[in-house]
Amino acid sequence: MDTIKKLNLKGHLLTAISYLIPIVCGAGFLIAIGMAFGGASKDALVQGKFSLWDALATMGGAGLGLLPVVISTGLAYSIAAKPGIAPGFVVGLTAKSIGAGFIGGILGGYLAGFLVLGILKYVKVPNWAKGLLPTLIIPFLASLLGGLTMVYIIGTPIAAFTGMLTHFLHGLGSSSLLVFGAVIGVLSGVDYGGPINKTVFAFVLTMQAEGINGPVTALQLVNTATPIGFGLAFFIAKLFKKNIYTSVEVETLKSAVPMGVINIVEGVIPLVMNDIVRSIVATAIGGAAGGAVSMVLGADATVPFGGVLMLPTMSRPWAGVAALVVNILVTAIVLAVIKKDVPEHEMQVENEAEEEDIDLGDIQIF
């Protein structure tokens, strides 16, 4: 177990995903804008036979199509630094070419990165060849071994598993989608952008790389709705003649809610830490409701980040709006009902001590 911890597999994956997100967002917006205006993603752009919107959609589609390569390169770089870039790129391309998809890219990145570390540790070269080590020997050996391993050993079962998982998700009925969405919603929200959220994000991003946008959309809508729900709870509680936040918490909401609108959920963590159990219960119930609505109605953003900015990238923007509204309302109502009433004296803003005026007469010059 200690050996596995030292490998830092999860840390490397999250680092690679952080490299991946800007590419996914940029490419996602390109394809969304292009297709919104009637463009289509093409295999090749033949001069004179495509429109501006075709070009945008094709650019975005090409970017999203290289996600296995990007994640593999990012992982290998995280593990082995600069020497890992070339092998990670080659093994990622290999995973893509044999249909191993995003999962293949992830495993290929680990494979390439640790192969590079192994070569650096165990392969000894004469002094005259040390200059060739980072530019020729390491890229060649790691790419050769990693690529052949991907093609002949791990690629085929990964491709089969990816195809089976994709087929399974495509075949889910309404009741199954509701349960699946609810599970994603709960897991997405309960640790407010922490390790559980990031683990689920890695899984749903795998699905998006295979053309299934629903799960990642559900996760991001829950992240967006949660802080807004915390803010709305303040006003709903007033209807019950309750004060559920202290004055300090109200000030925190003023920044947490706008952060939530653009999909940054961490702003509510100070509020959660003051009432962990009730906050998590409200978040989980709201997230389950929002995730279920998102999956059942078919919200399918091509961009897995951006909060309300995701809505225009959906083929059914109203589905995203409905999921947000349900999630926000349920979170707010549950929070307003179950949180304790804050005593009036705790709501008072303490007057800050006034700074003493400087008396110039006190200044002495020696």
Mean pLDDT level: 85
Strand content: under 5%
**Beta-strand segment tally:** 0
| Uncertain residue ranges | 349-358
* Helix fraction bin: over 70%
Shape: globular
Measure the end-to-end span. Answer: 67 Å
The largest β sheet comes out as:
none
Structural class: mainly alpha
Question: What is the structure about, briefly put?
Answer:
The chain has 366 residues and is mostly helical. The protein is built from 15 helices and no strands.
Can you put this structure into words, describing what you see?
With 366 residues, the protein is mostly helical. It has helices at 2-7, 9-36, 52-65, 67-80, 85-97, 101-122, 133-170, 174-189, 195-209, 214-239, 247-261, 269-274, 276-297, 317-338, 344-347. Helix 8 runs antiparallel to helix 13 (276-297) and helix 9 packs across helix 10. The longest helix is centred in the middle third of the chain and has 38 residues, at 133-170. The radius of gyration is 25 Å and the shape is globular. 46% of the residues are buried. Mean pLDDT is 85; it is low at 349-358.
Topology (elements, then pairings):
Layout: H1 2-7, H2 9-36, H3 52-65, H4 67-80, H5 85-97, H6 101-122, H7 133-170, H8 174-189, H9 195-209, H10 214-239, H11 247-261, H12 269-274, H13 276-297, H14 317-338, H15 344-347
For the structure shown, list the relevant keywords.
0% strand, 366 residues, globular
